[in-house]
Amino acid sequence: AQTVTQSQPEMSVQEAETVTLSCTYDTSESNYYLFWYKQPPSRQMILVIRQEAYKQQNATENRFSVNFQKAAKSFSLKISDSQLGDTAMYFCAFMKRNTGGFKTIFGAGTRLFVKA
Amino acid sequence: EPEVTQTPSHQVTQMGQEVILRCVPISNHLYFYWYRQILGQKVEFLVSFYNNEISEKSEIFDDQFSVERPDGSNFTLKIRSTKLEDSAMYFCASIRGDEAFFGQGTRLTVV
Questions:
Q1: Per-residue pLDDT tens digits of chain B, which is 111 residues long
Q2: Cα–Cα distance between B44 and B84 in angstroms, integer?
Q3: CA distance to A5, B26, B37, B49, B101, per residue, from A8 (Å)
Q4: Which residues neighbour A95 within 8 Å (Cβ) at sequence distance 6 or greater?
Q5: Cβ–Cβ of A101/B30 closer than 8 Å?
Q6: Whether the Cβ atoms of residue B79 and residue B86 lie closer than 8 Å to each other
Q7: Which residues of B touch A33 (CB under 8 A)?
Q8: Measured between alpha carbons, how far is A74 from B26 in angstroms, rounded to an integer?
């Protein structure tokens, strides 16, 4: 069974600084997708960034980038130039296709506080 | 941009009552899901639905839960006899291709 582990329950960063959130996962699959979702206090789930496992190039989305290490099964999120609005819960997620479609498994989340 | 819509945004119900949570997935999506997030905990998979039937369900999704797509657009989650521990945020998601689109969630409070 797939598992997703986020080992940092909470992190804080000073505004304008850079922070990295870690995520590791366990799977025997070779084709899958990885995501980072942001959940602000409104509790909405907002997609931050996605990575296809077959792509070696790390995904980037403006201030957000990932360090995808497939062999190590690691998928960390780097937030550059942190902003107060980045304060939220961040979930790492793994998705693979199975007979019933796609299934997404989430990590336990990392709560990020951006300090002014 | 198309989005997944969930109603209501917040529902309060008495223990033992039935609730129906509604979702309108993105129209050309094929796979539909319900997830649950108890306050302060991780997002948990409940059930997936494809081609008008359940394709996979978790151990959480017991006989108290059911899903249906009654009219080809709405996708509902019914909890027959709510318990206090059903209080959570419930997210609907739909997928086409390789990205899950989540609704804004329904906060269910069982009192």
A1: 678 999 999 999 999 999 999 999 988 888 899 999 998 888 999 999 988 889 889 999 999 999 998 887 899 999 999 999 999 999 999 887 777 888 999 999 999
A2: 17
A3: 9, 34, 19, 33, 26
A4: A32, A33, A34, A35, A102, A103, A104, A105, B98, B100
A5: yes
A6: yes
A7: 98-99
A8: 31
Per CB-CB distance under 8 Å, the chain A contacts of B95 are: 101-102
**Which residues of B are less than 8 Å from A91 in CB distance?**
42-43
Q: Give, rounded to a whole angstrom, the gap between the first and last alpha carbons of chain B.
A: 36
Contact B98 A44 (CB under 8 A): no
- Residue in chain A nearest B47 by alpha carbon: A103
Whether B56 sits inside 8 A of A100 (CB atoms) is yes
- Could A106 and B42 be called an inter-chain contact, meaning their C-beta atoms sit closer than 8 Å? yes
Could you read off the pLDDT of A36-47 as tens digits, one per residue?
Answer: 999 988 888 888
